[in-house]
Design goal:
Largest sheet of chain B: 6 strands, mixed, barrel
Shape of chain B: elongated
Strand order of the largest sheet of chain A: 6-7-8-3-9-10
Distance between the termini of chain B: 30 Å
Strand content of chain A: 25-35%
CATH topology of chain A: Rossmann fold
Number of helices of chain A: 7
Largest sheet of chain A: 6 strands, mixed
Number of helices of chain B: 10
Order of helices and strands of chain B: HHEHEEEEEEEHEHEHHHHH
Number of domains of chain B: 2
Number of strands of chain B: 10
Distance between the termini of chain A: 46 Å
CATH superfamily of chain A: P-loop containing nucleotide triphosphate hydrolases
Number of strands of chain A: 10
Order of helices and strands of chain A: EEEHEEHEHHHEHEEEH
Radius of gyration of chain A: 18 Å
Helix content of chain A: 25-40%
Radius of gyration of chain B: 28 Å
Structural class of chain A: alpha/beta
Strand order of the largest sheet of chain B: 2-3-8-5-7-6
Shape of chain A: globular
CATH class of chain A: Alpha Beta
Oligomer: heterodimer
Structural class of chain B: alpha+beta
Number of domains of chain A: 1
Largest interface: A-B, 32 and 23 residues
């Protein structure tokens, strides 16, 4: 049984599904201490798909990892709905990732010995009390929506890069998560395919009323997102327009 | 478990080869253990399965029943020792005989019917109760068949069939002491008396056989008492045969465990990226460790089934003078031991899985 800590935030009035408040992440101690993220704050509403833009090593992945419950912040608070992620135990974080967060990592990262359909079904089996029949139906529907019905029984090595990334999107959406986190989804794809994948992601997130955060360093992809946050040397700022993005 | 099963289905060759290799190792463990057990049984069965708790040899016997010489009067002396419920003389010699399957060596035992020292393990018929009747553990012998002792030409009629009663890997015949003495007298007519080789003792209920054996040694001059298990372990060659086979079986066992442990560790290291991804997706370490446990169990079960078939075939095909059969208890104990120790070796993999940091899936470290 997990314990859920109630969030105490004035931002509740805005109904932000995700709230990151004054989060800092440091590695090491003393002279070797490195601050990866410094006092980052952001809020994302339900149904929003936002991008997190920044160069390599700026702290994008560290921030998204904390938001997704893969890392625990050194200080600050991260809240997803009514759960405070930042103070959860490892066991609670595992449960949270299985039930409420969907990930799309760089270069798809599928289980190589499972077919596309099985990759989706395995993730569906992770939460407690999962319904097998419902999961099978949902997997088939998702694969159909993603244009992968004909490829459902192929293992990843038989799929193209774009197909693999679409399977990864399906897997991220499989457990009907509140939050979809996408890390450099176009890293292994050419421009045209990258655009298709991000467009698909944006559409799926919005249609399903999910909240999505996409980490990217590719400026061309931000047009599909509602808001753009920039991160540089661990400092997070909300982008105000194209002028600000021009620095990249 | 489904993840483990699907992986095995998609990598049939890899897991099939492992199961094949492990099955050969389990085969060796089972085959060597069976052979060793049968060999030792054929050397010691006659002593091990005597109806007695304690055996008394002469103190010059050097722990060997065949080197022991006791006067028949010693039985009465042993019977008076505290803790002794009953005592009976045993005599034994190796002689030539015409057996049901041809001429060969025969271990002849004489005992006193109704007293300790009778053979156990009767599978058919009865124990001898009259002159020149015999109960035998010999290939081809049947109730009513005969065997002739050489050179005395005394004919023994088989009235009982025994199992596990061989001595020195030779067929064995049990007769009453007068028949035994008559057979020896026939070839040594000038012998003043036919010595006994041992006194078999049944101890009182509640008496410790080891204590009774020591008391006999202490109180009956010229004798040494042994519990039956001690007497068996002291039969010449038994300890070295046991030790040699023990080393072979032990080494094979260890190799099979190491093979399984290393295989799954290599497999785990190869799959670290997948395990990391699954940890990031919300799979618990216990769940992933469970898939390793499932695969180890599946490999051991499959390998054991193949190994049992191989041993069964090998024992069926092998023809030796020693009765050899696969003991189900040995199979169960061996398979359980391989499984448990394999799980122990699998802990290396499980430890590796537990140390996975899911954050590395996103490259955050």
């Amino acid at each position: 049984m997990t314990t859920h800590q109630p969030a105490t935030s004035a931002a509740n009035e805005t109904k932000a599904i995700l709230e990151v408040a004054d989060v800092t992440k440091t590695y090491g101690e003393g002279h070797t201490q490195v601050t990866a993220i410094a006092n980052a704050s952001l809020q994302v509403q339900q149904g929003q798909f936002v991008s997190l833009l920044g160069p390599s090593g700026s702290g994008k992945t560290t921030l998204i990892s904390m938001i997704g419950g893969l890392l625990t912040p050194t200080s600050g608070t991260i809240r997803l709905g009514n759960e405070v992620i930042s103070s959860m135990s490892k066991k609670e974080l595992t449960r949270l990732r299985a039930e409420r967060v969907g990930f799309v990592f760089q270069s798809s990262n599928l289980v190589p010995f499972l077919t596309a359909r099985e990759n989706l079904l395995y993730v569906a089996s992770l939460p407690k009390n999962h319904d097998r029949k419902a999961a099978a139906k949902r997997a088939d529907n998702l694969l159909a929506e993603l244009g992968l019905s004909e490829r459902a029984n192929n293992v990843p090595e038989k799929l193209s890069g774009g197909e693999r990334q679409r399977v990864a999107i399906g897997r991220a959406l499989m457990n009907d998560p509140d939050l979809v986190l996408v890390d450099e989804p176009t890293a292994a794809l050419d421009t045209a395919l990258g655009r298709q994948v991000v467009e698909l992601l944006a559409r799926e997130v919005k249609q399903r009323g999910k909240t999505g955060i996409m980490v990217t360093h590719d400026l061309r992809m931000v047009e599909y997102t509602d808001e753009v946050f920039e991160i540089l040397d661990g400092k997070l700022t909300k982008s105000t327009g194209n002028a600000a993005l021009a620095v990249h | 478990m489904r993840l483990a099963l699907l992986e095995m289905r998609r990598a049939k060759l890899r897991f099939g080869l492992l199961a094949g290799a492990v099955s050969l190792l389990i085969f060796l463990v089972l085959f060597l253990s069976t052979l060793s057990g049968a060999l030792i049984e054929s050397f010691t069965g006659a002593i091990k399965n005597l109806d007695a708790n304690v055996l008394v040899y002469s103190d010059t016997a050097r722990d060997n029943i065949q080197g022991s010489r006791l006067s028949p009067t010693i039985v009465a002396q042993v019977a008076t020792v505290p803790g002794v419920a009953a005592a009976g003389g045993i005599a034994t010699t190796t002689t030539s005989a015409v057996l049901p399957d041809g001429k060969g060596d025969l271990a002849l035992f004489g005992f006193t019917p109704g007293q300790p020292g009778a053979p156990s393990g009767l599978t058919d018929g009865r124990l001898p109760s009259a002159a020149n009747e015999t109960a035998v553990d010999a290939p081809g012998a049947t109730i009513g068949s005969t065997m002739t002792l050489l050179p005395s030409n005394i004919e023994l009629q088989v009235v009982g069939i025994l199992t596990g009663a061989q001595f020195n890997a030779a067929p064995t015949a049990y007769v009453d002491l007068p028949s035994y003495q008559a057979a020896i007298k026939a070839t040594n007519p000038n012998a003043p008396f036919i010595p006994l080789n041992a006194v078999a003792v049944a101890t009182d209920a509640g008496s410790d056989p080891a204590t009774v054996a020591q008391t006999i040694t202490d109180t009956v001059p010229g004798t040494t008492g042994y519990t039956v298990s001690t007497a068996v372990s002291k039969i010449p060659g038994v300890a070295s045969v046991s030790q040699t086979f023990g080393i072979l079986v032990g080494l094979t066992f260890i190799i099979s465990i190491v093979v399984i442990g290393f295989f799954f560790l290599i497999l785990t290291v190869q799959k670290l990226r997948v395990f990391t991804l699954l940890r990031a997706s919300g799979a618990s370490p216990a769940r992933l460790a469970g898939s390793v446990v499932f695969q180890i169990t599946a490999v051991v079960v499959l390998a054991s089934a193949i190994a049992v078939l191989l041993v069964w075939g090998a024992l069926k095909g092998a023809s030796s003078g020693i009765p050899v059969s696969l003991d189900p208890a040995l199979v169960v104990v061996t398979v359980l031991a391989v499984w448990l120790f394999s799980l122990g070796a699998g802990l290396l993999s499980i430890r590796r899985i537990r140390s996975i940091d899911p954050a590395t899936a996103a490259g955050a470290r």
